[in-house]
Predict the 3D structure of the following.
Amino acid sequence: MIDLRSDTVTRPTAAMRKAMAEAEVGDVVFDDDPTVNRLEAVIAERLGFETAMFVPSGTMSNQIGVGVHLAPGDAVLMPAFAHVARWEGGGIAASFGAVMVHIAGGPDDDGLPGVAAFERHLYGPHPKAPRPVLIALENTHNWAGGRAYPAARIGEHLAWARGHGLARHLDGARLMNAAAATGNTAAELAAGFDTVSVCFSKGLGAPTGSCLLMPRALREKANRIRHRLGGGWRQAGLLAAAALHALDHHVDRLGEDHVRARALAELLVRHEIGTPLHPVETNIVQFEVHPRFGTSEGLVAKSRAAGVAFFPTGPKTARIVTHLEVDDEAVARVDAAWKSL
Ligand SMILES: Cc1ncc(COP(=O)(O)O)c(C=O)c1O
């Protein structure tokens, strides 16, 4: 089976498993896991932040990242299809008592509505209105088809938010993909945000784990939220070793995933499987399913039977994702499988 469901499906390589097996470990809650401490120092330095916190998932990292800025009755402004808006169980409301304001763009929306669309939701200060305190952006933007926004584009939103006294959170689950696609460094794309979440478990190929970057002043509050969410893990150095290995060995190759995603997008069209809904900038292709399959479920079932797995994203749309385990031979096998559908 060629697995194009997500870049989270990768399994640790033999070299990564060796690094994990040899990791020195301690107790994270007691602050003495040397490998976790090293990972936090390395990623903080690399992205230009004072401190980083290693947590089990991108969802927890985002939730802590937004939570450090929020009080009950506050509002978070974010693109309508951001992960933190749609796929985190309503955590902003459930855990922090804050309101999620989903910003929809115009017809040309590529996942990052313009500043004017955010501005329309900047009601207040008014005693009757929730208090907007934070914008949360996503780069690359998963649901918009892995779109990557260069630093200059994000800079407009950051300057606007700063001008209105809003804090700024970035869901950078695939920040390294964004860097590979835009030519900006990951540090350039992270600059100007107060908190940034990065995942090691997606394109970077580690089994699980994310880091939240932040200024030291937010660390105590972040620690408290992490514990409340059950994220006070112990010998997590085993997993931090995988993340460190990924930073050393799996960042420079991300461009290959982008090239193969474009190759698969061409195959979608050539074999009348579907039509990409956006320019393919990174490792994700959202596409409209060709009408001959009826529904996306119909296509997904046929493709799976032919040995290529992916997910529907709506009744007529689906998504494919490339990653560490999709090499040129896998692309050739997809070509052969789709030709026969
Ligand atoms: C953009 C984005 N942010 C956050 C997450 C959450 O990561 P996790 O699955 O580790 O909770 C995902 C997961 O796919 C994602 O795509």
